[in-house]
Structures are given as structure tokens and as C-alpha cells.
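Example 3.2
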Amino acid sequence: MPIPSKEIQNYFLAKGRNAIWGTNGVGRGPNMTPYWFLWDAETGKFLISTLDWVAKVKDVRRDPAMSLLVDDPTSNLGLYVLVYGNGVVRGPGPDAVEGSIKLIRKYRYSDEATWQHWNEINAKNDRVLVEMTPEKWIWRNV
């Protein structure tokens, strides 16, 4: 099965709505949940904003190995990509803000809506940013 062109890959990652984020749980199976994500082509990292106290953050701090599955049936491209890599938790606090704002802008489209959303989800100052550096990509056509 041929790998999609870089142009199609970039479009798919830019327009994808959710990624299933998987971490390695302790004494249980994989911990998987859908999340908003941003593929930051400039840094070559995926960004995910979440709460500091969720199990996924605890998992990544203990074991940085993680995976993301991006499957976007609304794009009509018939693609999905499974990405394996390692995550780093930034924050809570100032280290989580810039990347989280970039990510939210993908979904909220305007600066005003982006900052409003950020202020709502970070009211307790407990947001973190997880940066995932990809190590292996598996592209598939469905």
C-alpha cells in the first residue's frame, strides 16, 4: 500500500479533528481516549492540552512511550495514521500556555474565541501541554 504524499499527509494532519491518545497503564491495559491535537510541523511534534491530574499525564510522566491514532472519516481521504513516540509534559503554568493556544486556535479559529476557551478550561491553572515526538509512522488507506 503506497504511503500518501507529503502534501496529503500535511493536509490530513492539519484538518484532523481528534486523535486517540494511548498510554501504557500500570496493571491495566492501554489507556486510550480521544483528544484534540495539533501537528506542529515547525517543531515536528504533536501537541495535546489536558489536565495535570488525569491518568494519561501520570502515565507519561512514569513512562513517556505513547501513541496517537488519527482517523478522520470526515475528510473523505480514506486514511488513518498510527504514530508511536515519546511524550514530555509541560506545565502546569506558563510552559503550557503557548502550545495550548496554538492547539486551541485550530478548533476555535479566532483569537478571541481561542483565549475565551483557554480561560474557561484553565480556570484552575491546572492545564498541561503534552508534546509528543514521533518515532514511527504507520500510514494506511482504508
